Amino acid sequence: MKNRILQISLFDREIFRFTIKVLTLLILFLVSMFSLYAQTPRKDSGADGSISIVALRVGDYVPEDFWSHKVKIYNQGDTALVELAQYKGKPLLLDFWSTSCGACIYYFSKLIDIQKYYKGALNVLLVNSFVKRDNYATIDRMADDVLRTHNLPSVYQDDYLIKLFPHDPIPHYVWISDEGRISAITIKELVNIDQVGILINLNRHDKDTD
Q1: What is the pLDDT of residues 99-126, one digit of tens each?
Q2: How far is CA 22 from the centre of its chain?
Q3: Of 2, 68, 77, 95, most Cβ neighbours within 10 A?
Q4: Which tens digits make up the pLDDT trace of 60-113?
Q5: What SS3 string covers 86-116?
Q6: Please, which residues bridge with residue 81 across strands?
Q7: What is the C-alpha separation between 142 and 138, in angstroms, rounded?
Q8: What is the Cα 122 distance to its own chain's centre?
Q9: Rounded to an integer, what distance in angstroms lies between the CA atom of residue 24 and that of residue 45?
Q10: Rounded Cα gap, residues 44 and 56, in angstroms
Q11: What contacts 118, CB < 8 A, 6 or more positions away?
């Protein structure tokens, strides 16, 4: 009888710990989603009347010309100029980084594991912006060979995505649904198999309810 009571007590304790962990992750996720909501004033036109790029927030949709915009891609030593439409049709995770950011590079292996786990259900695109002063040579000559040996494409010398998603600290992650809606903007701690699963399932639910 005592052993049974002890087992029940231990079981309840594990359930409590698990619940606290889930609630903590949920709170962090929600905070990250909305922490940058008011980061940058939105502008629809420049001082001279010309149309300017509008910074996007959680809940916004990417502009109509987003998918047709061409970017320079580095992938395993090769380069190409491609339209972002290549990454349309699945949830898309943008990872802003630079070669001087050790934490960014360290987390690349996690992104590779996530891609393998979901077997093509997610697109991951690294983004190295021009403000970081990296180029093909600095990326290709990194001491860590993760980008040379794995299919983890990166935009480089970007001057478009950085304007849509302005930020300071990196790594910086933007979660985009397969329909182009900004689902979340988060820190690296929330980029894991469980949170990616939430994004994928949300997209599936939205399609089922259409």
Answers
A1: 999 999 999 999 999 999 999 899 999 9
A2: 21
A3: 95
A4: 999 999 999 999 999 999 999 999 999 999 999 999 999 999 999 999 999 999
A5: HHCCCCEEEEECCCCCHHHHHCHHHHHHHHH
A6: 72
A7: 6
A8: 11
A9: 40
A10: 11
A11: 193, 196, 197, 200
Prediction pTM value: 0.77
Nearest Cα to 142, choosing from 93, 76, 187? 76
* 58 secondary structure, DSSP code: T
Helix, strand, or coil (residue 128):
strand
Q: Report the C-alpha gap between 105 and 87 in whole angstroms.
A: 22
CB 149 within 8 A of CB 76: yes
Note whether 185 and 165 are within 8 A (CB).
yes
Angle at 126 between CA 46 and CA 41, to 5 degrees: 25
φ, ψ for residue 88 (rounded to 5)?
-90, 155
Is 32 within 8 Å of 186 (Cβ atoms)? yes
Dihedral over Cα of 97, 98, 104, 109: its sign: positive
Q: Which residues contact 34 (CB under 8 A, 6 or more apart)?
A: 58
* Token couple for 30: 């929600």
